[in-house]
Amino acid sequence: MTDLRAQALTFRELHIPGRPLVLANAWDTVSARVVEEAGALAVATTSAGLAWDLGAADGDRLDRDRALEAVGLIAAAVRVPVSADIETGYAEDAQGVGDTVRAVLAAGAVGVNIEDALYGPDQARRGGEALRSVAEQAERIAAAREAADSAGVPLFVNARIDTYLRGAGDLAATLERAAAFLAAGADGVFVPGPVDPVTVKALAEGVDGPLNVMAGPGAPSVAELSSLGVARISVGSGIAQAAHALVRRAARELLDTGTYESLAGGLDYGELNTLLGKGR
After folding, report:
1. Can you tell me the distance from the alpha carbon of 18 to that of 255, in angstroms, rounded to the nearest whole number?
2. pLDDT tens string 62-93
3. What is the pLDDT of residues 193-209, one digit of tens each?
4. What per-residue string of b and e applies to 156-173 under the rule 16 or more CB within 10 Å gives b?
5. What percent helix, strand, coil does the chain show, rounded to 5?
6. Fewer CB within 10 A of the end CB, N or C, for the chain?
7. For the whole model, what pTM was predicted?
């Protein structure tokens, strides 16, 4: 656990408002190695990309063992700290979230994202509510914190708040959740959805901890988000989606026209083979 603790401390120190940690989310070992080779200071997984890679849909449809086996392969493939997107915790209750965090540490990751959204049957059982109650989610975050602390690893717990993404709350509701989750033991707050400068600035000023936003085409640049006080910028499943779009374009071109222009610009075979052939 000594090396894991050192990596966790390093990862925590990368969250600086105004000088954010920039994460190009990966979903398998090759994407993680490519991201690391590009100069990333850390690797974060995308739960959607990882689920798709394993043949499952996103949204709490992947079981813990399969997900964390993949996280373990990613952590073993790179030297930089790894943060695992664990959806809602791969567990029905707070105790199960604690078990998941222990498994995350065993896999070699030093950070987690935990969502407050409800999906599928769980959502249906609760009358279609989009989010867990503040109290229930705080209990789950507290369980994650306790599990990590008991292991002696300062795991970075990133509390994802889906008020905007699910249309389930405004700025005030988001800040209320953020305060409760930080009090429960979260280290940072992740609010995917809003990228307009006014809202991002209000979130950065209103959240008493590092703010993570999710960027993509049309969003302000890293420099602009930095100036608003953001401490972490990630792209979610965006890179995975772009990669899979290339697969579809190339396949359709090959099958429909019999040409290969979509393959231009790919990574050199030797370069990629050498990268993956290097020891960790």
Report:
1. 48
2. 999 999 999 999 999 999 999 999 999 999 99
3. 999 999 999 999 999 99
4. bbbbbbbbbbbebbebee
5. 50, 10, 40
6. C
7. 0.95
